[in-house]
Amino acid sequence: MAENNYMSIGDLAKRSGLSVFRLRAWESRYGYPAPQKLQSGHRRFLQGDLQKLLIVQQLLENGFKISKIIDKSKEELIDLLPRESTTLQTLSLPLKSKESADPHKLLPTIKQALQHINAFDESALHDIFAEVWGNSTPLDFCENFVTPFIFQLGDQWENGFLDIAMEHFASKCLENFIDTKWREANRLLNGKPLLLGMLPNDFHSFGLQMCALLAVYENIKIVYLGERTPIEAIETATRDLDTLGVVLSISKTMTDKVTMDYLKQLRKEIPKEISILIGGGGAYKIKGIDEITQFREYISWVQKRK
Fold it and tell me: Could you report the per-residue pLDDT of 190-247, keeping only the tens digit for each?
């Protein structure tokens, strides 16, 4: 087989949605994925490795343990996949529960995750995120796991139990996990999009990431502008897109006057028929702009725009 038919570990990571660090951790711990050593001396992976890893990732998101499945063949893994066939089933949509998960039941899981941060163990952290995700609705995941986890992370850092490197490491691991979840679902959606962004100078994007996650699992297409979005970019996007509305996450690091000036400018420039929604620690009521304080309110707002 020609060398250009093989993948580097970087290519495998990019196409599978798994990090290079995680793939190497699995290779070290479980012996898979095992690269082929080419005559050139390069370590490369096969297309079959990618196919198997995509199935492994889906099973992890449905509650399986990596240690129990990593040594199985692709055919054996396929047999473990859920048989239901809905549009988002292939994306490992979390199981719907009749009642909301008890947030107190997740406290031991959060404490366990915090312990892995000290060892900079991305693989173990990802496994915890995937297990909680696979047994929660998106709303439960955001309300009862992500939000208290972020709070505990900040508390641990402020009290000296975690240093800044650990806090950044854990935050990025969780942010990447959430980002992967909503983006893989978003690629399959069509229709009028919801525009998500943040104000200039605002870069705390967890709230916006969770808004994206919750919207796509309501089958709403997302156009994600992200943090530090220039006001002109938001205005231009609303003119160029037939959008359902604009959602802005505003963190408490923003000053009131600057936030008010930006919001007044947006409301003046964006057509009145386009709704603007704000939320976050730095959000407050402004005429002509909707405000939410809870994710449940956000879901209700999104559902009305379908």
Answer: 889 999 999 988 888 889 999 999 999 999 999 999 988 899 999 999 989 999 999 9
Model confidence pTM above 0.85: no
Q: Dihedral sign, CA of 68, 74, 77, 79?
A: negative
Other CB atoms within a 10 A radius of the CB of residue 125 amount to 23
Indicate the Cα dihedral angle 84, 89, 93, 96, nearest 10°: -30
Residue 58 has pLDDT above 80, yes or no: no
Per-residue CA distances from 294 to 88, 143, 155, 291 (Å): 25, 9, 21, 10
63/26 Cα distance (integer angstroms): 18
**Rg for the chain, CA atoms, rounded:** 21
Instruction: Report how far residue 4's alpha carbon sits from residue 52's, in angstroms, rounded to the nearest whole number.
Output: 20
